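Sanity check

After download, print the first record. It should look like this:
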Amino acid sequence: MIIKSIELREIRLPLVHFFETSFGRTTERRIVLARVTDADGAEGWGECVAGEGPFYSDEWTDTAWATLSEFLAPMVLGKEVAKAAHVFALMRPVRGHRMAKATIETACWDLEAKRAGVPLWKQLGGTRPQIACGVSIGIQDTPEMLIEKIRKEVDAGYQRIKIKIKPGWDLEIIERVRKEFPDIRLMGDANSAYKLSDVSLFQQLGRFNLMMLEQPLSHDDIFDHAALQRQINTPVCLDESIRSAEDAAHAIALGSCQIINVKLGRVGGHLEAKRLEQVARDNEIPVWCGGMLEAGIGRAHNIAMSTLAGFTLPGDVSASARYWEEDIIDPPVTVSARGTITPPHSPGIGFAVNLPRIEALTVRKETIK
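Expected structure tokens:
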């Protein structure tokens, strides 16, 4: 494989409903897309999941664009690699910037699968003919709005409900939700909004039979999480602080978590996601696919990753219509009444990229050759 050109685009895509976490509210996504083309004219697509500001991580839309354009694309262009799994190593001189790296790396996996004439999920070694789907519901203006949204998603068949929590929107909210929905699979995601000194709150949450508490403490911590896990019955799930297979191994050894959320962008692409999934599976730690408000290309890559054997819990891979009036792929991602997605059988990501739609949404474009 020799990449001859990398086209970058920034698109702006309004959400059908705002999405709020402990660090802010999002109403429109600024998304960087990459189209890689090889010497034979075959192409693959990747999507950068970085947010509009440096809040979930230190990467954001504008740093991703600059890093891709000035550093990562030149490192990959014209270099011959035997397979997509070797592309990440070409970008190793740049420290961090895993979301930017994943944009190119995942596009190369799409290209490789298309050239091989197989679906990406099979190229990755996926084994699941269906994946279980959950939803992530942001902080709402009122508890009543939250209850209404949960009811809608439960009625739609989703197998797990994740609600965002933060100080002041936690114990009473979860108590109310559990009273209204006593039997659903329910979890809380704190996005690092708490401290270890809040342990009594998490002990109180133990009576609500939550599947897990996701990243309650600092975004880069595994030590306080280990201390927290020893003091509570609810499984701790790590997200932001797990950026590699090595991070996962260290966290597991310390007892920092019982579950891990895997996000393609956070770990740097499919190769590292596969390595991380293997470490977790070897240690009997379940993993699941986290969401970053992806448009269709990123969502398609998440579907492929979620077919790996270790992804035993419902992820955040939900239907396109939950987020967008019109997605950038055709057909849009849909979820069955049983809360499942069947991976596509077409080569590559398995969905057609809607170029006219992308063109209409594009606010800047650059081709590096």
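If your output differs, re-run the checksum step. Summary of this record's structure: Residues 225 and 256 are 5 Å apart (CA to CA).
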